[in-house]
Design a protein that fits this description.
The structure is a single chain. The chain has 197 residues and is an alpha/beta fold. The chain is 37% helix and 25% strand. The radius of gyration is 17 Å and the shape is elongated. The mean pLDDT is 94.
Amino acid sequence: MLNEKLKNHNIILASASPRRQEFFKTLGLNFEIRLKPIAEDYPPRLRHFEISDYLAQLKALPFKGELKENDILITSDTIVWHNNKALGKPRNETDAFQIIKSLSNTTHEVITSVCFTTKTLEKTLNAITKVTFKNLTDEEISHYISTCKPFDKAGAYGIQEWIGQIGVTKIEGSYFNVMGLPTHIVYKTLNDIVNDL
């Protein structure tokens, strides 16, 4: 349905994430993947969704000089916000253990920002989902890290994996946002962009 509206546009997904790519396929969108390396650094003064908004926009910068009239570039970034700080991807097993241990028996926020860029427009939106974990044992945390190796995931976990199945007791907001993409926002914004053109 949306793909028909977008037939005269070229959707570019700037993400190596297999989950985000799968979401685009599930939405029925034709898209191409273009990747440009970027250092995911942000000013320390930024807080909460300001961080993911900034990083999503930063990922769009290297593409700006090469976008054509019918291109729609989509970049995104996900962070986990807990105890007033951003939790990124773990550096190693010890770091992953400490991150998950800190999330145990508490509620945290998963924030994903999505930046839509064309030759004439840049629009950044974000979604926030609250996730509550049960009291995870050290054995459960170690088992998850050794079997799923969540080193490419913000907050050191994937909700769709074993730890989400056994550990998550409550979600407030979009489940798909926690997986890495607020698909409802992508769908609505692409519709809005096409309708405004």
